[in-house]
Amino acid sequence: MIIGLTGGIAAGKSESAKYFESLGACAIDADVIAHELTAKGMPALDELSKSFGGSILLSSGDLNRKKLADIIFSDEKAKLRIEKIIHSHIISRINEIISQNIMRSNIVIDAPLLFEVGLDRICDKSAVVRVSYNIQVERLVLRDKLNADQAKRRISSQMPMEKKVELADFVIDNSGSKENLKKRVKDLYKLLTSEVKII
């Protein structure tokens, strides 16, 4: 079974993916893959530098990730260009990992843009990790050392949480403690894997 996992920024999606992994699933982190694919010498970085010029590179030739994030969260057209370049590479890599692991374990694709880039179409089920807007802002400020306005801008650059909830098969509420989140993930994984056995 392939489970698509998404959620708003700072909602607890990656934490949830770790819990799925601890239960035996193979977790594929789209953000980690994006980081690997934009390393120095990788084709995706070459495409980005051709499209945006040397301003997105550090003097070492590595990607200036802060500069790229600033572009993504402030320029909608540039954001779409960046996503188009990176996501084709990410999807190809995810498909490779799935083909290597699908016979051995259930797969969880941890992807912030699961619905936006169509990754949900290769999933059997999808789940969104949800928190309230205020909690999301608070966590993002603490995690990324942003001010409230910067955090709100980053949140508003993504698909609204309500839309993700509408598109997902399941919702994992993460407004409580880590233990509560762990239990919700465990219960959902049990439900999903028991569905497979019934079929």
UniProtKB/TrEMBL annotation:
In alphabetical order, the GO MF annotations are:
ATP binding; dephospho-CoA kinase activity
For the protein in the UniProt heading, the enzyme class is transferase
Please state where this protein is localized: Cytoplasm
Alphabetized CDD domains for the sequence: DPCK
Q: Identify the metabolic or biological route this protein is part of.
A: Cofactor biosynthesis; coenzyme A biosynthesis; CoA from (R)-pantothenate: step 5/5
Which InterPro entries is this protein grouped with? Depp_CoAkinase, P-loop_NTPase
Question: Is Translocase set as a keyword in this record?
Answer: no
Q: Which positions does UniProt annotate for ATP binding? A: 10-15
The UniProt function text for this chain reads: Catalyzes the phosphorylation of the 3'-hydroxyl group of dephosphocoenzyme A to form coenzyme A.
Among Pfam families, the record links this protein to:
CoaE
Which PROSITE patterns does the record associate with it? DPCK
- Keyword Transferase on this protein? yes
Q: Could you state one GO cellular component term attached to this entry?
A: cytoplasm
The protein's Enzyme Commission number: 2.7.1.24
What reaction gets catalysed by this protein? 3'-dephospho-CoA + ATP = ADP + CoA + H(+)
Question: One GO BP annotation here?
Answer: coenzyme A biosynthetic process
Q: What is this protein called?
A: Dephospho-CoA kinase
